[in-house]
């Protein structure tokens, strides 16, 4: 059972924005018009009228973005296959973020069903409170919500982390506006989002961003740092692997080709240690990060284009 007692007072109804109260096995709005069940102590705070997910998906045990029950043998085999991705910046970025957070900071992780690269540093910091959300159950999920309607009151968090998530939401701008809303006046956002990556998470994959596009997405934040998180080597490894998989449609064949291709192409990712911060690395990066502080001002588009760091030829 999850203990939500320390942050239940910060919640609001994702539909009518009223306060929520614990009532037996569910949360309900002040008027009692909206009810949200608890499954194993985890609140299901979905606004079903404004989301591609519904409360029934979770009460019925329907799989959303992740497979809930994996074959043990298949799971073990996947662990033996080398990864074709490497996130060179994450560890240093989280180290920097850790130092920036105040004592007793409240941190919201959007899409935190599993730990993102480098995030172990935050979870080992006993001076902060981390509240994890996702649209699927997972070991680090404290509540279920859609990032388009974050069920928290205004200005309650010192930091919001959204790592490898914004490509999977229908409206990234709306999600970032929600992040801005729930952050305190000097709150910090840390985001990582793909650029040159093929479709993953099946039907729940919608958007990609260039470096400038990513910065513009967070234009209501003062940029503290940004740049590639994974470079051209990772992008090339993904492209080759997906090129080979595109010849097949059966699940078995795709899994075999995926495994074989990864053994062939995984060394390409290490080229990013050389290419990551070169101008061409910005043009062909696999993904970008953004670290920023909440601001009352917006970056103008004229200021935005001056931040271009790619090749000029």
What does this structure look like?
- The chain has helices at about 55-60, 70-80, 90-100, 120-125, 170-180, 210-215, 230-245, 250-265, 270-275, 280-285, 300-305; strands at about 20-25, 25-30, 35-40, 40-45, 105-110, 130-135, 145, 155-165, 185-195, 220-230, 285-295.
- With about 325 residues, the protein is of the alpha/beta class.
- An 11-stranded mixed beta sheet has the order 1-2-3-4-7-6-5-8-9-11-10, with helices on both faces.
Give the SSE map.
Layout: E1 20-23, E2 26-29, E3 35-39, E4 42-45, H1 55-59, H2 72-80, H3 90-100, E5 105-110, H4 120-123, E6 128-134, E7 143-145, E8 157-163, H5 172-182, E9 183-194, H6 211-217, E10 221-230, H7 232-245, H8 251-265, H9 272-275, H10 279-283, E11 287-294, H11 301-305
Helix pairs in contact: 7-8
Shape: globular
Helix count? 11
**Helix percentage:** 25-40%
Q: End-to-end distance, in Å?
A: 57 Å
Assembly type of the chains comes to: single chain
Strand content: 15-25%
Would you tell me the structural class of the helices and strands?
Answer: alpha/beta
- Lateral strand order in the biggest sheet: 1-2-3-4-7-6-5-8-9-11-10
Biggest pleated sheet? 11 strands, mixed
Cα-atom Rg, whole angstroms?
Answer: 20 Å
Any low-confidence stretches, pLDDT <50, length ≥5?
Answer: none
Order of helices and strands: EEEEHHHEHEEEHEHEHHHHEH
What is the average per-residue confidence, as pLDDT, rounded to a whole number?
Answer: 94
How many DSSP-defined strands? 11
